Amino acid sequence: MQKIILVGKPNVGKSSLFNRLAGRRIAITSDVSGTTRDTNKTIIEIYDRSCVLIDSGGLDDSSELFKNVKAKTLAEARSSDAIIFMVDGKMMPSDEDKALYYALLKLNLPTALVINKIDSKKDELRSYEFANFGAKTSFAISVSHNAGIDELADWIYKQLKDEIRPDVGEDLDEFLENFGDDGEVVREMSAREDYERKNIQVGIIGRVNVGKSSLLNALVKESRAVVSDIAGTTIDPVNETFVYEDRVFEFVDTAGIRKRGKIEGIERYALNRTESALELADIALLVLDSSEPLTELDERIAGLAAKFELGVIIVLNKWDKSEEDFDKFSREIRDKFKFLAYAPIISVSALGGKRVHKIYPLILEVYKNYTQKIQTARLNEAIEEAVKAHPIPREKGKSVKIYYAVQFGFAPPKIALVMNRPRALHFSYKRYLTNKLREKFDLSGTPIVLIPKNRSGSDEENEGRSE
């Protein structure tokens, strides 16, 4: 898919234009210069064509960190198909802007000069000063007023070839209509074809400075994210794709999370962006710093993976200890993160690249389990065996029965328990059923959602989560 990159100095409005063209707020925008530090990517549609739009970090030499940002921006521009160079129309043209524009022209790519913040007649007159750049293609726009965006979109469209991407979904009540009162299948659940074609979305989460950006770089085998000892370097989620065994992994390096009392300025937006990224993810790589003790914050971050019902792989980064130490640390994790008992644990050294390659097959394994379709007959056999071995406690002397179980969704496996008294199914018994299902089926790395329902179709979705 073709790539269009937004380039310019900090605070010229690149992230605002990125959000405008994407049709939703993805990148963080603020008046703080240098808010965007890593390149941010999303797929956008211009009329009937698609492309990858890239919001790059600002071109600035004010510090060592931002010199790294500039280097990565220019490297990303070289691999793009077209460049949008943005300047601030509220300011007079500068020699620095002109030099940057001429440097980009040397890449021999279609390049448009975009003069942003043209909000008044006075701004429009000032914009004429940029004519001395000698740009063959230029646009005077106002992202905040949505002026001139259509003309720019027309130019982008001319640079693109046609691209299409699919989307999928499933509904419980509609699905249950395909089952009779006795649990007989009227129409079998569709296969995992869509899940076998789509990109696997992998979110990388953890505290600040646990090595998430280093892990992303090691996974995609290039220096993709800015790595720095400065806590909070990553603000926007950083997206990158990697192909392994004909499957496309779409990694997202999210902002490191601090204790609430230490979250400052734009990092508050970063936390929201992290949660938004996890809403779209399939699998979370929970990165822990093995050189430090586990903290309450680690547990809270792990809770985000559980909250969004993601497949989970726990990654112990900065590992240089023995196998005996690994077993000890793993037991500590299991004790502290009981709600992630299903998550496999792997030790790596992201900076050195040690054992990082073992994460790829593990992602495939967890994703297979996460999107697994359990045969209805086998599912009910497992439930019947569990109930026979340990009957459901009665409610006020009345029996509680599970008539049948049906899987109605994937990612993660969602199972409806059709019952006579769904509210009487205690959470401890749901956990018992979940454990029995894990004994019968390969469900490593994935949560299981159990929803008690009665025959009339009402449910207890808020109370029915098993994990």
Low-confidence stretches: 26-37, 62-66, 163-171, 180-188, 224-237, 259-270, 460-467
Share of residues in strands: 15-25%
Number of strands: 15
Under CATH, the homologous superfamily of the largest domain reads: P-loop containing nucleotide triphosphate hydrolases
Which CATH class of the largest domain is shown? Answer: Alpha Beta
Give average pLDDT, whole number.
80
Distance separating the two termini? 38 Å
What spatial form do the alpha-carbon principal axes imply? elongated
What radius of gyration results from the CA coordinates? 26 Å
| Order of strands across the main sheet | 2-3-1-4-5-6
Largest sheet: 6 strands, mixed
Binding site for GTP 2: 206-213, 253-257, 317-320
Protein name: GTPase Der
Family: Belongs to the TRAFAC class TrmE-Era-EngA-EngB-Septin-like GTPase superfamily. EngA (Der) GTPase family.
GO molecular function: GTP binding; ribosome binding
Descriptive account of the structure:
This protein folds into 3 domains: 3-159, Rossmann fold, CATH 3.40.50.300; 172-191 and 372-454, GMP Synthetase, Chain A, domain 3; 199-371, Rossmann fold (3-Layer(aba) Sandwich), CATH 3.40.50.300. α13 (376-389) packs across α14. It is an alpha/beta fold and 467 residues long. The protein is elongated, with a radius of gyration of 26 Å. The chain is built from 14 helices and 15 strands. Mean pLDDT is 80; it is low at 26-37, 62-66, 163-171, 180-188, 224-237, 259-270 and 460-467. A hairpin with a 4-residue loop joins β13 and β14. It has a 6-stranded mixed β-sheet with strand order 2-3-1-4-5-6, with helices on both faces. It has a 6-stranded mixed β-sheet with strand order 8-9-7-10-11-12, with helices on both faces. Helices cover 32% and strands 20% of the residues.
